[in-house]
Specification:
Number of helices: 3
Strand content: 15-25%
Helix content: 25-40%
Shape: globular
Order of helices and strands: EEEHHH
Largest sheet: 3 strands, antiparallel
Number of strands: 3
Strand order of the largest sheet: 1-2-3
Distance between the termini: 15 Å
Radius of gyration: 12 Å
Structural class: alpha+beta
């Protein structure tokens, strides 16, 4: 399993960490900073799910008119990791 770190931008979370297994499923999603309850829930909901599917679902999710959200930033980080490993 490979672990990735993504610097979040435009949201309360400063950084997002997650791991991808050999089948490109998400594991151990962690947000540093931000709303702990919501971010823990996101981590539980996406655990073991296909990374590309989760990136598609979360992409474009907006928080308070910011144009992004922690979930959207996770989708960006996932796509960056998948492209890096392609």
């Amino acid at each position: 399993m490979k672990t990735y770190q993504f610097q979040a931008q435009g949201v309360c979370a400063r950084q997002i960490r997650f791991s991808l297994d050999e089948e490109k499923n998400l594991h151990d999603v962690q947000f540093m900073g931000g709303c702990p309850g919501n971010q823990a829930a996101i981590g539980k909901l996406v655990e073991g799910k296909p990374a590309e599917e989760i990136a598609q679902i979360l992409a474009g999710n907006d928080c308070g008119g910011r144009g992004t959200s922690c979930a959207d930033q996770l989708s960006i980080g996932i796509r960056a990791a998948l492209e890096r490993d392609a």
